Amino acid sequence: MRLYWQIAKNMWDQAVAYRLSFAIFRLRNLFWILTMYFLWLYVLPQGKVLFGYDQSQILTYILGGAFLSSLIMATRSQDIATEINDGNLSNLLLRPIGFLRYYFARDLGDKAMNIFFSIFELTIVFLILRPNLFLQTNPLLLLLTLIFSLSGTVLFFYFSVLLGFIGFWSTETWGPRFIFYQLLNFLAGTLFPLDIVPKPLYTVISYLPFPYLLYFPMKVYLGQLSTPEIIKGMTVSFAWTIILYVITREVWKRGLRVYTAQGR
Amino acid sequence: MKRYVRIYIRLLHLNFSSLLAYRANFVNSVISSSVWGAFSIISILLLTSRTSSLFGWSRHDIIFLTCSYSILIGIFHTFFSRNFEHFSRIVDLGELDTLLIKPIDSQFFISLRYVNYASTIRIVVGIILVSYLLRGETLSIIQLLGYGGMMLFGLLTLYALWYIITSFTIWLSRLSNIVEFLFTITNVSRFPPQMYREFSWYLFLFFFPLTLIITTPTKFLLNKVDMYSVAPLMVTAVLLFIFSRFFWKFALRFYTSASS
Question: Contact, A210 vs A182, CB < 8 A?
Fold first, then answer.
C-alpha cells in the first residue's frame, strides 16, 4: 500500500514541478466552465423553469459537474499508449508492481491535484459571481452522490486504460481518444443535463456507461431521481464496471502477447 | 512575394505527400473533425430548442453562427493550428536555429510549414450547413463578398492572437500545452458577444477580439451589418497582425537556443 501511496505522491510532485503547464490546463477548464455558466445563466433567467430545471439547479449542475469532473475524469493514463509505443512498458513489467494498480495510483495523485485546484477556482467563481446554488442537505442523497462519483471514477479509469491499450496494435491513438472525449462531453452530460434530449434517445443513453460518469451523480445530488431510478442506475453502472473490468483484463493479456518492446 | 507564393505551393505539395504516407492519421483526423463538428451543432440545437431568441439573436442566427464557426475554424485548423502545435517543440529542442538561418521570413515559415488537409472536412460541412440554412434566400454579391472578406479578417485576428500568445514560448519553452489553452479560448467566438457583455465588462474586454471574428461575417450575410460592426474587426485584425510581427521580432532577441 505504501508503494502505491508513493506513486500517487510522485504524480502530485510531478504536477507541482510543471506548475505553469498545470495552471494553464486548469485555466483552460475555468474558461470553459465560465462559458457554460454564462450561457445557462442567460438561457435560464431567475424564476423560469426549462427542461425541468430552475436557475439554481442548472448552475449547480454546471459548477458541481465541473468539480466532479476533476475527481472522475482527471487521469494520466493517456501516457499508457506512449509507454507501449516507446517500449518503456518493459520497465514496468520488470518491476513487482501491478499495472492497473500503478496507473490507478498515478491517477489518484493527478486527481488530488485537480481537486485542489478545482476547489480554489470554484471558490473564486463563487466569491465573484455569487451564483444562486442548490445545497443538498439530505445525508442519504449526499452519500449516494459520493458512491456514484466513486463508481464513475472507476468506470472512467477502465475506459481510459482501454484507450491506452490501443497502443499495442497502433501508434495512432490520439484519434480514438479525441473521439471518446467528444462522446463524453455529449453523453456524460458535461455540457448539459442529458434529460434535455428527446425521451427515446435519453432511454438509449441511460443503458450506456457514459451517463454514470457525471450526469447521474449530479442528478442524485439535485434529488431529481426517484428510488427505482437510483436502483436502476446503480445496477447498470455496476454491470458496466464488471464488463469493463473483464474487457480490460482480456485486452491487457492479448496486448502483452503482441508487445514487442519496440524501441528498446 | 512571388517567391513566397512558389514556396507555399511547394509546401502544399509536400504536406499532401505526407498525408498519403500517413493515411491512418488522416482517417483519424477526418473522423475526429466530423464528430467534433456534429456535436457542436447538436449541442447548440438542443440548447436553443425551447428558446426563440438568445442574446438578441434568433435561434436561426445562433445556429448560423455555429456553422460559420465551423467554416472559419476549419480553415484555421487546415492552414495554421498544426504549426502552432509544433511551436513549443521547435523552440524547446533548439530546432528554431535551423529555421532562422534559412533565407526566408521566420514567421512565414513557422506559421505555414504544415497543412492539415483532414480539417477541410469541417469547412465542407460548414459550407453545406450554411447553404442549407440560406435555402430560398436571395443573397446579393455584396453580402457574399462581405462574408468572405470579414471571414479573412476574422482569420487574421485569430492567427495574430495565437501567434502573439505562442511567442511567449521563447521565454517559457516548456509551455507545451499553451495551444490546448488557445483551442479552448477560441471557443468563446462561437457565442454572441452580448453573452459576455451582459455579465461582466472585464470578461467582455478580455474576449473582445475573439467575439468579433465570427459574429461580424455572420452579420454581413444576415444583412444586419453597419459600419460600427465592420470597422472594429478590420482595425483589430490589422493592429494585431502588425503587433504579432513586432512581438515575434522582439521575442527572438531573447531566444537562447537549446540542445543544438
Answer: no
- Extents of the domains making up chain B: 2-252
By CB atoms closer than 10 A (0-12, 13-18, 19+), residue B105 is middle
What is the tally of structural domains in chain A?
1
**Interface pTM (ipTM) of the complex?**
0.74
| CA-based nearest residue to B176, from B74, B65, B67, B87 | B87
CB A213 within 8 A of CB A156: yes
- Domain contains A263: no
- Lookup: cell for A58: 442548472
Q: Is the pTM of this model over 0.95?
A: no
Closest CA–CA distance from residue A25 to any residue of chain B (Å) = 7
The answer as to whether A90 is a domain residue is: yes
Q: Which domain holds residue A10?
A: 2-258
- Beta-carbon contacts of A235 under 8 Å, excluding residues fewer than 6 positions away, are none
Q: Which of A38, A42, A175 sits opposite B32 (nearest CB)?
A: A175
Nearest CA in chain A to B196: A38
Q: From first to last of the 264 residues of chain A, give the pLDDT tens digit.
A: 777 788 888 877 877 777 777 788 888 888 888 888 888 887 777 778 888 888 899 999 999 998 898 889 888 888 888 888 888 888 888 888 888 888 898 888 888 888 988 888 888 888 888 888 888 899 999 999 999 999 999 999 999 999 999 989 888 777 888 888 888 878 888 888 888 888 898 899 999 999 999 999 999 999 999 999 999 999 999 999 999 999 999 999 999 898 888 766
| Contacts of residue B29, Cβ cutoff 8 Å, sequence gap at least 6 | A175, B116, B118, B119
> Taking CA atoms, what residue in B is nearest to A186?
B39
Start-to-end CA distance of chain B, whole Å, equals: 31
Give how far A254 is from chain B: nearest CA, Å: 22
Is A264 part of any domain?
no
CA–CA dist A141, B239 (Å, integer) = 55
CA distance B235 to chain A (A): 26
A103 Cα distance to chain centroid = 15
Residue ranges of chain A whose CB lies within 8 Å of a chain B CB? 18, 20-21, 24-25, 27-28, 31-32, 34-35, 38-39, 41-43, 50-51, 129, 170, 172, 174-176, 178-179, 182-183, 185-186, 191-192, 196-197
